[in-house]
Amino acid sequence: MMALIVYLTRMTGYFIGLQLRHIRGVQPVLEALPGCAFMAILAPAVRQGSLSEIIAMACVIVIMWRSNNVVVATGVGMAVLLFGGPWLDGL
């Protein structure tokens, strides 16, 4: 049931976005929304996170800002958590 709700929400958003795309001035807002939604989910989690999670998030933000490469940023963030997590959290 939840998968159906998520699917319908995404499809509705997609079709509304297609209609709004033709309105002048809406395109920059539509392009910025995914990043805003992502940060709204991640900001509270990082605030309550451990040292390794905060460092991993900082690495991801810097790599995305400099290279705009999602794959590399995600890989580095996961590597920091996987390899540095036990060491950093023990400090």
Summarize the topology:
Elements: H1 2-20, H2 27-47, H3 51-67, H4 70-89
Helix pairs in contact: 3-4
Description:
There is one protein chain. Helix 3 runs antiparallel to helix 4. This protein starts with a helix and ends with a helix. It has helices at residues 2-20, 27-47, 51-67, 70-89. It has 91 residues and is an all-alpha fold. The chain is 85% helix and 0% strand. The chain has a domain at 49-91.
The CA-CA distance between the termini, in Å, is 43 Å
Largest sheet, if any? none
Query: If you compute it from the alpha carbons, what radius of gyration comes out, rounded to the nearest whole angstrom?
Result: 17 Å
Give the % helix.
Answer: over 70%
Determine the number of helices (DSSP H or I, runs of at least 4 residues): 4
What percent of residues are in strands? Answer: under 5%
Let me know the number of strands. 0
Low-pLDDT ranges: none
Determine the structural class based on helices, strands and strand pairing: mainly alpha
What does the average pLDDT come to? Answer: 80
Overall geometric form? elongated
Order of helices and strands: HHHH
